[in-house]
Amino acid sequence: MKCDVITLFPEMVAPVLRQSILKRARERHLLDVRVVPLRDFATDKHHITDDMPYGGGPGMVLKPEPIFAALDRIKQERGGVRVIIPSPQGAIFNQGMAEVFSREERSLVFICGHYEGIDARVMQGIDHEEVSIGDYLLTGGEMAALIMIDASARLIPGVLGDSDSIEEESFASSLLEYPHYTRPREFRGMKVPDVLVSGNHRAIRDWRRGQSLLSTLYKRPDLLAHAILTNEDRQWLGQAISGMRKEGESVRWIS
Ligand code: SAM
Prior knowledge:
This protein has 255 residues and is of the alpha/beta class. Helices cover 37% and strands 17% of the residues. The strands form three sheets. The protein has a five-stranded parallel sheet. Strands 3-4-7 form a three-stranded mixed sheet. Strands 9-10 form a two-stranded antiparallel sheet.
């Protein structure tokens, strides 16, 4: 996966890419991310990249010229690009988008807004997708870009050690993942479930599936509508729901 992050604040981005799994993915050439300092593309003496909004109002707006110049350079160097503008007005980022991004052949170019945002002619003149990471406001697009890069990069084959872990993880099949335990076997009176130390792989698999269904039922029942469920899963969920009904818990979200 190739990415270019155009930003006024390279140091908000670069250190994160030098840590942990993203660092290893870059070292192994599975992930190629370049941080592109917007200021380098401002041609005036003071390298000005922002200015006051026409019509007045608070905050500064990122100027269009350096952004277009940075993108032109990236296009020359990379060839194909897919431009993503992190924006609170965009479609909400999700696991499905992460999967699509992870398979993208073109470079994903993130144009990070800051302050009040970006001159509207950037959105007008550049073929792009606006993507939001949620219904709240950030100070800039840098962390949103990093979130999208992180979630996508970990889906590139080889980035995580064990590809099975991706298949079983939360959202992979519209279900949340089962709980994990490690040593010690007992901690402050809390024990690891016996089944996990039984050595019975089938029983472990069934327990994990059940826990995964239960977590989804309790925490994100909306996901169940999209989940691929077996007859056994449905039966199991039916029993769990009738158990909840008996205990007087709310099951309003079950259609
Ligand atoms: N004035 C803008 C508005 O009201 O829509 C908000 C600008 S915000 C303070 C500055 C920049 O942060 C945006 O240009 C965008 O790049 C980024 N940003 C803020 N919230 C975001 C979100 N939820 N998802 C993605 N990017 C976001």
